[in-house]
Design goal:
Cofactor: Mg(2+); Mn(2+)
CATH architecture of the largest domain: 2-Layer Sandwich
Shape: globular
Bound molecules: nicotinamide-adenine-dinucleotide, zinc ion
CATH topology of the largest domain: D-amino Acid Aminotransferase, Chain A, domain 1
Protein name: DNA ligase
Distance between the termini: 30 Å
Largest sheet: 7 strands, antiparallel
Pfam family, one: BRCT
Helix content: 25-40%
Number of domains: 5
CATH class of the largest domain: Alpha Beta
Number of helices: 24
Organism: Haloplanus rubicundus
Structural class: alpha+beta
EC number: 6.5.1.2
Strand content: 15-25%
Length: about 675
């Protein structure tokens, strides 16, 4: 996890109405550059690595263009600026692989003048220009490599030079050829866009919502999240498809994009039928306008079109910058907006307990999609925009799926205030930054999720209560509070759909076995916001359960790694009478959390893991080593004693270990050298 930069105005709900560059002093410009770089790096992380962006693409683009403009105007380029690189870092869990050729970004704009300027730059340098006009698919790009006619590997975009090996997952996509027909080139590297068809996306989200998982914001995030899952079986269950659009390198001879498409078709790759060749930039502009009108009828999301110079010699001649090829241009679609009135603002409670104000709208058609509600994010957003009941507002389909209110066109009346108690359970509401949360862990809106968390492997480790079982237990009314788990009735369980006596007995046995637990694990299981396994252990080391329940935020802050936000969150949790009652009932039911003594066999040892050690989860290992005095950190430095290299390790930590001269241990050596000491 990368920390969100504090106090950076370009991270949350950024104000993108910038003063003209000429009006800035040198000092102010440098300060703005610094903050923009910091914010953009964080947005890149959210978008490329976490698959969970927090600003609309258009907002991101505005920040990015501002940064480019400032770097030019004040001549403060930097090799490490986000304007000089592509995409994000690969995930640690997947193997990193170098690309056959760097996977760059595209020059892009939604402005017709910009693509005309692009066309002039091209025509100044090469003659007889023709463009391949292609839809710009809004999915997830992969490089797929074939050797000797067989699928060799699939790699994500990553930072453009190296990406993650997602072969196992991409292989599950039906339209990706595993073998090429006879006569195929010995070596072939192609690029394509993995996407989730609209219908499949809707279905997947419905299933996720039913199960208590957060829905994906849009098909792009869903596709990206899926391709990078660690379990190919889950991937195979998800509706993914792919369009191939570039041959990057091959042992065959190709002279044009037209030949490349012909080769792809001939070899059985799925290509898109909208692609065409044109010789005039005005035709490219018409092409985009036509696709913009048709986009809602397509089964896949597109966010513009790409114009690429057809002739490969001309491409060579034009070359690339560090960030993008000079021979291609993405001409993006305009924002989809509409106007309507707010009928009422209501507050919804999400599965994490977060309160989200939502505007109920007079239904309006925004380019083919009827919109009757839009998120207002939080109270600050409502205040900043000035949204009220009856206001006329302008909407935008951000990420092109989730509608958002972007502007008040005409005010309404009445003041909106966040409720002081939870609209679902009447529990206390606490404010944290700009957000409000219900503190009751047994709030019906949150119960499925808290239940699943409570039973998870790193928590109470009650096998058999996954998403589906948690849903059933809550829906059938067997569990209304976490504590009800230990009062479950065998016959009632056995009567549940798909259960039977055996499953009932298994669950009861699991529950019985879970009663002996160490205090840190128990505190983690309660699901207090911001309290992960490590903080829970630290709290358990510092307080007994009774003391923890009574501790003030100030007391809590004496614990290392507990800052004000965490302290407030823990205190608020135990201020909620319902939560204390839940804990008391759990103890009465026989759950007996014990404080574990700390041993010191491994005192002073600093260990880093990459990849997985068979037989243990990462947090089991961390707990084990830490209770014996070692510290487990997430990155390799000169202070690291050992890097444990398990299965499917990342490359970065190993490179660092090499540089720093840190000794590496495989799982056997780890067992022999460290675990055997305990
Ligand atoms: N919201 C955020 O926080 C956030 C953060 C980072 C990036 N972004 C968005 O991502 C954009 C930059 O992303 P990028 O650099 O990944 O993409 P890009 O816009 O530079 O385009 C390159 C990508 O286009 C895709 N593509 C689709 N169809 C194609 C075709 N026919 N031919 C060639 N390529 C095709 C490929 O995946 C390729 O990697 C930004 O403009 C921004 O809108 C948003
Ligand atoms: Zn509630």
């Amino acid at each position: 996890m990368v920390e969100e930069p504090a106090d950076n105005p370009y991270v949350r709900d950024p104000d993108t109405s910038f003063a003209p560059v000429e009006e800035l002093s040198e000092g102010d410009a440098r300060e703005q550059v610094r903050r923009l770089r910091e914010a953009i790096e964080y947005h890149d992380y959210r978008y490329y690595v976490a698959n969970d962006p927090i600003v609309a693409d258009r907002t991101y683009d505005t920040l990015f263009e501002r940064l480019e403009a400032l770097e030019d105007a004040f001549d403060c380029h930097d090799e490490n600026s986000p304007t000089r690189r592509v995409g994000g870092e690969p995930l640690d869990e997947l193997e990193t692989v170098e690309h056959v050729a760097p996977l760059l970004s595209l020059q892009s704009s939604g402005d017709a003048d910009e693509i005309r300027a692009f066309d002039r730059r091209i025509r100044d340098r090469v003659a007889d220009v023709r463009y391949s006009a292609e839809p710009k698919f809004d999915g997830f790009s992969v490089e797929v490599v074939y050797e000797d006619g067989g699928f060799d590997r699939a790699v994500t975009r990553g930072d453009g030079r190296e990406g993650e090996d997602v072969s196992a997952n991409v292989r599950t996509i039906g339209s990706v050829p595993l073998h090429l027909p006879d006569g195929a080139p010995d070596f072939l590297a192609v690029r394509g866009e993995v996407y989730m068809p609209r219908s499949g996306f809707q279905e997947l989200n419905e299933r996720r919502i039913e199960r208590g998982d957060d829905p994906f914001a849009n098909p792009r995030n869903a596709a990206a999240g899926t391709v990078r899952l660690l379990d190919p079986e889950t991937v195979a269950d998800r509706p993914l498809d792919v369009f191939f659009y570039d041959v990057i390198d091959t042992s065959a001879t190709l002279d044009t994009q037209t030949e490349a498409f012909a080769l792809l078709r001939e070899l059985g790759f799925r290509v898109n039928d909208e692609t065409t060749v044109v010789d005039d930039v005005d035709v490219v502009i018409d092409y985009r306008d036509r696709l913009a009108d048709a986009r809602d009828e397509l089964e896949y999301e597109i966010d513009g079109i790409v114009a690429k110079v057809v002739d490969f010699d001309a491409r060579e001649e034009l070359g690339s910058t560090a960030r993008h090829p000079r021979w291609a241009f993405a001409y993006k679609f305009p924002a989809r907006t509409g106007e309507t009135t707010v009928e009422r603002i209501v507050v919804q409670v999400g599965r994490t307990g977060k309160l989200t104000p939502v505007a109920l709208l007079d239904p309006v058609d925004v380019q083919g999609v009827t919109i009757s509600r839009a998120t207002l994010h939080n109270a600050a957003q409502i205040r900043d925009l000035g949204v009220q009941n009856g206001a006329t507002v302008r909407l935008e389909r951000a990420g092109d799926v989730i509608p958002e209110v972007v502007e008040v066109v005409e005010g309404g009346d009445g003041d909106f205030a966040m409720p002081e108690t939870c609209p679902v359970c009447d529990g206390h509401v606490v404010q944290e930054g700009e957000h409000h949360y219900c503190t009751n862990a047994s709030c019906p809106a949150q119960l499925r999720r808290s239940l699943q968390h409570f039973c998870s492997r790193d928590a109470m480790d009650v096998e058999g209560v996954g998403a589906e079982a948690a849903d059933q237990l809550v829906e059938e009314g067997l569990v209304e509070s976490l504590a009800d788990l230990y009062d479950l009735d065998r016959d009632e369980l056995a009567a549940l759909d798909g259960w039977g006596e055996r499953s009932a007995d298994n669950l009861l046995a699991e529950l019985e076995a879970s009663k002996t637990v160490d205090l840190g694990t128990f505190v983690y299981a309660l699901g207090i916001r911001h309290v992960g396994t490590e903080r829970a252990r630290a709290l358990a080391a510092a307080f007994s359960l009774d003391d923890l329940i009574d501790a003030s935020a100030e007391d809590l802050r004496s614990v290392e790694d507990v800052g004000p936000e965490v302290a407030e969150s823990v205190a608020a949790y135990f201020d909620e009478a319902e939560n204390v009652e839940t804990v008391e009932r759990l103890l009465e039911a026989g759950v007996s959390p014990e404080r574990r003594e700390r041993d010191d066999e491994l005192d002073g040892l600093t260990v880093v893991f990459t990849g997985s050690v068979p037989g243990y989860t990462r947090s089991e290992l961390t707990e084990l080593l830490e209770t014996h005095g070692a510290s487990v950190t997430s990155s390799v430095s000169g202070a690291t004693d050992y890097l444990v290299v398990g299965e499917n390790p990342g490359t970065r930590k190993r490179e660092r270990a090499d540089e720093e001269g840190v000794e590496t241990l495989d799982p056997e050596a780890f067992e022999a050298r460290i675990l055997s000491r305990l």
